Amino acid sequence: MKNKHAVMRNLITGMTGAALLMISDWLLGATGKGNVSNGVVQSNWASAAAWRYEAAMLIAGFAVFMLYTGMKEMVRQVKMTRSRRDIWSIRGARLFEIGGTATIVATLFLKAKGCILPILYHKLYATSLMGADMLTVVDDVFFYISIPFYIFSVIIVLFTSVPFIYQIWQGRLRVPKWFIILNPLVFWLVGWILRRFNVYIITDFTACMVSFGLLMMLWCTMQHVSRIPDRREE
Questions:
Q1: Neighbour-count burial of 105, counting CB atoms closer than 10 A to its CB (0-12 exposed, 13-18 middle, 19+ buried)
Q2: What number of other Cβ atoms are within 10 A of residue 56's Cβ?
Q3: pLDDT above 90: residue 16
Q4: Eight-state DSSP code of residue 178
Q5: What is the SS3 assignment for 59?
Q6: How far apart are CA 220 and CA 1, in angstroms?
Q7: Nearest CA among 111, 43, 100, 39 for reference residue 73
Q8: 53 vs 28, 62, 111, 122, 176, CA distance in Å?
Q9: Cα distances (angstroms) measured from residue 73 to each of 30, 78, 155, 218
Q10: Within 13 Å and on the Cβ side, how many CA atoms surround 230?
Q11: Is the pLDDT of residue 3 over 60?
Q12: Is the Cβ–Cβ distance between 59 and 27 less than 8 Å?
């Protein structure tokens, strides 16, 4: 492979961005002990420090540029491993590119949603509104952004994970078969299961599961690249 060191550097940059997104997700999603979930609204939003949401957006703003570098490289590697004799491999590579693009485009939008709703609830909590009124206002605000929120979330998780799993399963990525678990979809499902235990330490960690899946997918791609014979430019 030509420019192998540059490829590895790009993937490491992307991994750093994904790690920063994990921190951002934790700042947004960790609710702490004694939290009660009321649909979209979390009871501990009222006592959460505002600096957490400011820091989360600032970190995400830096992280998304770093993630772009790694995601672009990962899309390129998936395209290079597709087989022209396998229509699903070709389609999967296209879906993966769409998912990677959606990840970069939608990340700040999703983080903004994660900031706006708790800040809004925090401000409403200081007014004379009744609890039911506050829940209604926050739910109504989420209603206006819910469609793009769910669409982007599904595209990010499915369009990146499923094609990546297929490439590994078909042996086109030079990694062990068990690496099919290293993707956002699997970690999102694990997080969903862990949240059933309703233990706040575990629940808080699950807030960053999708970002952790992106981090692992970038690491998996780096392992694939490391196994490609080095071919220096003449």
A1: middle
A2: 22
A3: yes
A4: G
A5: helix
A6: 17
A7: 100
A8: 6, 15, 9, 11, 39
A9: 31, 9, 19, 9
A10: 8
A11: yes
A12: yes
